[in-house]
């Protein structure tokens, strides 16, 4: 035996009003069809639900059905509401990957605003370098990534959300520390702490491009995968490093930051990337939120 939700709604209206006429008006129907529906429900259950009289009264079976009907209809309404929220991107799950370079500026603002707007979305955060984000997007492990524009595939949709000038990180006490701006020629021959070409290839390419502007190659003495490791190695006096301007916000002990020549030609970018075929409402809402934050953030970090 299966009960239809509409029958339970009819019953609950009569049980709460204890009057067929008032219940019919509440349901926007006439009384005879309502009475017929209640009789069919009683036949289906095999027990009377009301004691017909003045006033109308519930039987023990009717009282029990009223308790269960409220519970079932409440759950049904909750299910419908949850489905509608999912369709609007207000409920569900979203997996976001990010690089460490996104942390100083955009990342906190985006996450804070998105969580405030969509608190019922389960937001899973993963720190991954750009090449690993590409693979995670392809396999569906993540839905969207904050990454560098390196080796992008044609089936990815992207938006640039941040552009930063490149600067040089020097050990405290370095011979060029007194200069406000470091000439590119001054970099020639300096020991360089570079980002790992496999896991942080974007900055490795930028470093080589900057040195290429003075027909030189960086004298790499050490590589590292993460910005914190690069700066720690610089602080130890191992060498200099070319980093994005937001690295200054870290105020790393033992490291000083200086501008380099031709800043307009030397910059790094941060992008948002997702699969072109992705249509999840939660993803659309996140992209809109991220682009809104990006629009309010200076596009060039000086």
From TrEMBL:
PANTHER family: HCA OPERON TRANSCRIPTIONAL ACTIVATOR HCAR, TRANSCRIPTIONAL DUAL REGULATOR HCAR-RELATED. It comes from Parapusillimonas granuli. Keywords: DNA-binding, Transcription, Transcription regulation. Pfam families: HTH_1 (PF00126), LysR_substrate (PF03466). CDD domains: PBP2_LTTR_aromatics_like. GO terms for cellular component: protein-DNA complex. SUPFAM superfamilies: Periplasmic binding protein-like II, Winged helix' DNA-binding domain. This is LysR family transcriptional regulator. Residues 3-59 form the HTH lysR-type domain. InterPro entries: LysR_HTH_N (IPR000847), LysR_subst-bd (IPR005119), WH-like_DNA-bd_sf (IPR036388), WH_DNA-bd_sf (IPR036390). Signal peptide: none annotated. One of its GO terms (molecular function) is DNA binding. Belongs to the LysR transcriptional regulatory family. The keyword Transcription applies.
């Amino acid at each position: 035996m299966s009960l239809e939700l509409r029958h339970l709604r009819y019953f609950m209206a009569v049980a709460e009003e204890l009057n067929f006429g008032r219940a019919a008006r509440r349901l926007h129907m006439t009384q005879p069809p309502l009475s017929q529906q209640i009789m069919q429900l009683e036949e289906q259950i095999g027990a009377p639900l009301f004691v017909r009289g003045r006033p109308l009264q519930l039987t023990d079976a009717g009282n029990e059905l009223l308790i269960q009907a409220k519970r079932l209809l409440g759950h049904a309404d909750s299910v419908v509401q949850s489905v509608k929220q999912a369709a609007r991107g207000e409920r569900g799950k979203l997996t976001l990957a990010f690089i460490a370079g996104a942390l100083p500026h955009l990342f906190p603002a985006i996450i804070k605003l998105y969580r405030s707007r969509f608190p019922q979305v389960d937001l899973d955060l993963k720190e991954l370098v750009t090449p690993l984000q590409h693979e995670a997007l392809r396999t569906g492990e993540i839905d969207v990534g904050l990454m560098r524009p390196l080796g992008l595939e044609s089936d990815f949709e992207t938006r640039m959300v941040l552009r930063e000038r490149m600067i040089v990180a020097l050990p405290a006490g370095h011979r060029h520390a007194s200069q406000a701006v470091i000439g590119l020629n001054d970099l020639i021959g300096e020991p360089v702490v570079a980002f790992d070409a496999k896991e942080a290839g974007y900055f490795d390419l930028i470093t080589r491009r900057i040195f290429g502007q003075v027909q030189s190659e960086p004298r790499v003495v050490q590589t590292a995968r993460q910005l914190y490791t690069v700066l720690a190695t610089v602080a130890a006096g191992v060498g200099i490093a070319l980093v994005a301007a937001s690295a200054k916000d870290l105020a790393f002990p033992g490291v000083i930051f200086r501008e380099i020549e031709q800043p307009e030609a030397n910059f790094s970018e941060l992008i948002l990337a997702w699969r072109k075929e992705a249509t999840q409402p939660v993803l659309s809402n996140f992209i809109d939120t991220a682009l809104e934050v990006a629009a309010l953030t200076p596009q060039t970090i000086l």
